[in-house]
Amino acid sequence: MSSSKLFNQLVAGGVQQEKNKIIYALKDFGVYFRRTFLAGFGSLICVYGGGFIYTLDSLPAASKQIEPIQFLLNYRYPFSISLVLFGMVAYSTNKFFLWRTISMIELREGGKEVAFKALSRVPLSRTEYSFRVPLSHVSCVQSRRDTKSPYVLFKIKGKLGNYYIDKDGYFPDPSLFDYSIGVARKF
After folding, report:
1. Partner of 108 at 20 to 30 A CA spacing, among 52, 61, 122, 181?
2. Are strands 128-134 and 162-166 parallel, antiparallel or unpaired?
């Protein structure tokens, strides 16, 4: 089916499909699981560093006279709190990004509803959670072809924030994606 016919059908009332069709699938899950592991490891190092600076007070008196340790002792509360907060914020930000990453988009039978599968909310798990929305409730923030970032952003009506798909993912029918999900709609 040519892209102009597909666009005209979508504008006229939707593509009448006989069965569900996958229009996007994530290829490499490993990147996201490695990022989760590294974010957790980095957060633990920050929390450990904050605890280490806080316990510098228990050093012997001779060691406390060294200039860098003296500086850390004078400002140990701000350094400890800052490191712990930085670790928590970094981990939370990464998890929020991962929870908003879509692993599969399926155009449902009839072409008026879209099913999304997103990455799991459980760390290092291969399970997914899914939800369905009408096609008219999905608005693409950036075009798949025009964006310079490695992700395509889109919004879903009634849900806060943006959702992300990896541009390097598998698009079985790119024109179907561009004229269904890849359209900017006003809510």
Report:
1. 122
2. unpaired
